[in-house]
Amino acid sequence: MKLKTFLLLASCIIIVSLSYTWLLHQPITFLTLINNIFLISLTATIVGASLVVVQGGLFNGIAYSFKRFFARVTKNGVYAFELDGDLEYVHAPSYTFTYPLLLAGILGCSVTAILSIVFYL
Questions:
Q1: Per the UniProt record, which residue ranges are transmembrane (predicted)?
Q2: How far is CA 90 from the centre of its chain?
Q3: What is the DSSP letter of 89?
Q4: What's the farthest any 2 CA atoms get from each other in the chain?
Q5: Tens digits of pLDDT across the chain (121 residues)
Q6: Cα gap 65→83, rounded to integer Å
Q7: Cα separation, 6 vs 99, whole angstroms
Q8: How far apart are the C-alpha atoms of 91 and 60, rounded to whole Å?
Q9: In the chain, where the domains are located
Q10: What angle do CA 49, 52, 58 make, to 5 degrees?
Q11: Rounded CA separation 31/18 (Å)
Q12: 95 in the Ramachandran plot: left (φ > 0), alpha (ψ -120 to 50) or beta?
């Protein structure tokens, strides 16, 4: 299943870069394709890495602290805390496309960086 997701995301990166080239009315050359695929892959890598950080639970403690602070400070929060007694811990969301997105982005960045070095240096 992850291979299908990876292939779908990799093909989406190529399609989005081609449409980006077409929308900007740039000539379709090998250099513009390499540049646009690199930019879209870099965006996918950043989004995938951000999702890995969120899934890892980095912000769970911060969210729990804010929830606890506002439960103690506001009047409604104090009433709710007195009734319930304890706050539930915030759990991180989980996404199935995180690692395929990160892998497709890293692979796209690597391949285009190698292609640009080989062909244009």
A1: 6-25, 37-59, 97-120
A2: 20
A3: P
A4: 69
A5: 588 999 999 999 999 999 999 998 889 899 999 999 999 999 999 999 999 998 887 777 777 777 777 767 777 666 666 666 666 666 777 888 899 999 999 999 999 999 999 988 8
A6: 19
A7: 8
A8: 6
A9: 1-56+96-121, 58-91
A10: 115
A11: 12
A12: beta
